[in-house]
Amino acid sequence: MGSCNFKSDSIETTQSISKSHFQFQYGIGKGGFGKVWKVEYKKTKGIFAMKEMSKARILSKKSENSVINERKLLSYLKHPFIVNMQYAFQDRENLYLVMDFMPGGDFRYHLSRTKRFNEQQTKFLASCVIIGLEFLHKNGVLHRDIKPENLVFDSKGYLTITDFGIARVWTNENAKDTSGTPGYMAPEVMCRQNHGVSVDYFALGIIIYEIMFGVRPYLGRSRKDIRDQILAKQVQIKKEDIPSGWSNEVADFVNHLLQRKPVNRLGLNGPEEIKQHPWLQDVNWKSMQKKSLVAPFIPSEEDNFDDRIHSDNDPWKDADSDAIKQSTVLLQNNSTQELFNGYYYDITSANESNEVSNKNKPNKAK
């Protein structure tokens, strides 16, 4: 019988980057598998966000395929309106995903502090999300977890999309692939039906509604409660319900995004249908793409992260479970470690490979 002891050579030997190459500064967020840190890459002095994910927690939630899928997607998804991956690597206990650092913090943080954003600010922020979604959808990717926590501000006040843990390449048959955050999930996802790009636009509609009224349209303690509410009533912002200072056009935009039936939902036929809505007629999309406009809301240069996550303490030390303890034991096995094979990425090496590949391509016929 083979030994069950962990051997260091089961971690990919091609890794040239490790945790020791980074100077950890402080925590800036928490996720389902670990903590997000602000770090400095010692070699270049560059500042990044590093997501540190516990393999034991990943195994206990049977999410190893999701974390591998996220790394694969981010290896080819590069865009100014998404948070791009720079490095990925692993050690015996954890996976590490190094991303662009967004100093403005996430939208939830500012929404909870500011309480309300006005219509001009909301239109700008919605436009940022639409540009990011257009890029993802044109590449065949559904994000499926658009929510304020997954929208983060860059230094100029532009929102970017992050967290691709449950993003998927679209397929015709994806009814079984249902995940997300209940308050922002489209009805077809909640009901485990096939779904497409409009699920992300439904979530955008929920966010705009939440900005306008200070509360989501569907509330409940469980996924079932929220699903029952969605099935019981179609949300419709009536003219008399529109808050002071907001237009009829934004209400119409939200109403069309929140259609329960995908066939009736704005965005089903692509981003141009979204952009042509009267509410967005005055958006300068070219300038937005270039990020050359002055944002109507720019986060302060002060710390934009929740003080509660700045502690070095283990955020899960009181949440141990038998499943996690069992998974920790399984990590001693090489076969378990092999589940994470391929979890490595170095943007420098990837760029060099692309340059070589492009040089070797034959010239296109004129």
Automatic annotation (TrEMBL):
Residues 22-280 form the Protein kinase domain. It catalyses: L-threonyl-[protein] + ATP = O-phospho-L-threonyl-[protein] + ADP + H(+); L-seryl-[protein] + ATP = O-phospho-L-seryl-[protein] + ADP + H(+). InterPro entries: AGC-kinase_C (IPR000961), Kinase-like_dom_sf (IPR011009), Prot_kinase_dom (IPR000719), Protein_kinase_ATP_BS (IPR017441), Ser/Thr_kinase_AS (IPR008271), Ser_Thr_kinase_AGC (IPR050236). GO terms for molecular function: ATP binding; protein serine/threonine kinase activity. Keywords: ATP-binding, Kinase, Nucleotide-binding, Serine/threonine-protein kinase, Transferase. It comes from the Eukaryota. SMART domains: S_TKc (SM00220). PROSITE patterns: AGC_KINASE_CTER, PROTEIN_KINASE_ATP, PROTEIN_KINASE_DOM, PROTEIN_KINASE_ST. ATP binds at K51. Transmembrane segments: none annotated. Residues 281-355 form the AGC-kinase C-terminal domain. Gene3D superfamilies: Phosphorylase Kinase, domain 1, Transferase(Phosphotransferase) domain 1. Pfam families: Pkinase. SUPFAM superfamilies: Protein kinase-like (PK-like). GO terms for biological process: intracellular signal transduction. Its EC number is 2.7.11.1. Belongs to the protein kinase superfamily. This is non-specific serine/threonine protein kinase. It comes from Stentor coeruleus.
